[in-house]
Amino acid sequence: MKVTSMEEYGLRCMLQLALPQTDEPIPVSLVAKNEGLSPEYTGKLLNLLRQAELVDSVRGRNGGFVLARAPENISLADILRVFSLDLFDVEYCNRFTGTEDICVHTTSCTLRPVWWMVSGMVSKTLESISLLDLMCKESEIQRELNVQLSIKGPVTERLFQINKDQINENL
């Protein structure tokens, strides 16, 4: 998974709106200044988030942007989807065909289930982390992620237990 600059800055803009913990609109200029971005680029990001109904805009002299929902009801996946359709690209089979039109391993591939499992784990993790979860110190979120993401057992056991149904559906 590659995080684009729009995704990163979109997440950071959302945090700028969430961190003050106020219902008062935050001006685009303040969000831009706090993130080291131009007001124009910040406005573009916030307008995309508004179109996705994650933020509301308030016009006028004291206008700006506010979260449209409580931070605990906005997941990282919600935010990232504003800037890209897929949270994790599993279209690798179409890209790595060598000199052929289709991959030579289309009928039997041991990598495909691994990528599907990774995709599912990334999506599930991003869905499970809310904006509220990020409103803390870095050490606190690191500790929580270490607990959430600790996976025990042999790789083969996990591979086939976690996503066996998803793998079979997609073959």
Concise account of the structure shown:
53% of the residues lie in helices and 5% in strands. With 171 residues, the protein is mainly α.
Oligomer: single chain
Biggest sheet, spatial arrangement of strands: 1-2
Strand count, sense and barrel status of the largest sheet are:
2 strands, antiparallel
CATH architecture: Orthogonal Bundle
Mean pLDDT: 82
| Number of discrete domains | 1
Cα distance spanning the termini: 22 Å
- The radius of gyration is 20 Å
Global outline: elongated
CATH class type: Mainly Alpha
| CATH topology-level fold name | Arc Repressor Mutant, subunit A
Briefly note the structural class of the backbone.
mainly alpha
**Range of strand content:** under 5%
Order of helices and strands: HHHEEHHHHHH
Q: Helix content range of the residues, please?
A: 40-55%
Name given to the CATH homologous superfamily:
Winged helix-like DNA-binding domain superfamily/Winged helix DNA-binding domain
What is the count of helical runs? 9
Unreliable spans are: 153-160
What is the strand tally?
Answer: 2
